[in-house]
Amino acid sequence: GTQIELIEASGIVTTAKQSAVRATRITTNQTGFTSATKIQWNSSDYDTQSEMDTATSYRFTATSAGKYLISAHVSWRQPSATMNAVLHIYKNGGSVAKSEFQFVSSSGYPTMTIADIIDLSATDYIEIYLSQDTGAGETIVAGTDYTYLDISKIA
Questions:
Q1: Which helix (H) or strand (E) holds 139?
Q2: Nearest CA to 41 among 69, 22, 64, 68?
Q3: Pairwise CA distance, residues 76 & 87, whole Å
Q4: Structure confidence at residue 103 as a pLDDT band (50, 70, 90)
Q5: What is the Cβ-side half-sphere exposure of residue 52, based on CA atoms within 13 angstroms?
Q6: How is residue 82 annotated by DSSP?
Q7: Residue 61 near residue 50, CB atoms below 8 Å
Q8: Which residues, 6+ apart, have CB-to-CB distance to 36 below 8 Å?
Q9: Which residue intervals of 1-155 are DSSP H helices?
Q10: What distance in Å separates the CA atoms of residue 14 and residue 18, rounded to the nearest whole number?
């Protein structure tokens, strides 16, 4: 038969084909963000249920209801000193969580992270938006270890 769930003696539960995605911004840096701008996740390391669109909408669309752990990590390329930035998790087109950060230096590749557990129904979608207040275009860094999105169904 088909194994649906495995419960180990230690209590670890493994479910077959549970939703899990790691999307990245890999091919080029993305510039702008003078207003809330969707991050264009253009690659994925894995996508167990084919729920991540890395070609047109750059969003995750749940195929089944449940609780999802959503985590995004964004690295800036030497941002303007004194820049304020906001990283958002959007559900179905509206912000449901945000992380604000104030930069005090323009050196290096400072990072922002946001994480939350969000209830999703089948066909609900998740997008990550980013904004900053310098009035000029700022750049996030491409690369699987700099800018990425992880989503896992946990219940």
A1: strand 138-140
A2: 22
A3: 12
A4: confident
A5: 25
A6: T
A7: no
A8: 86, 88, 129, 130, 131
A9: none
A10: 9
76 Cα distance to chain centroid: 15
> Looking up tokens 């996030």, which residue turns up?
140
Percentage of the chain beyond pLDDT 70 is 96
In this prediction, residues 15-22 reach a mean pLDDT of 86
How far apart are alpha carbons 34 and 134 in whole angstroms? 7
* pLDDT over 90 percentage in the chain: 55
**Structural tokens at position 99:** 């992380």
Residue 1 is predicted with a pLDDT of 63
The predicted pLDDT at position 54 comes to 96
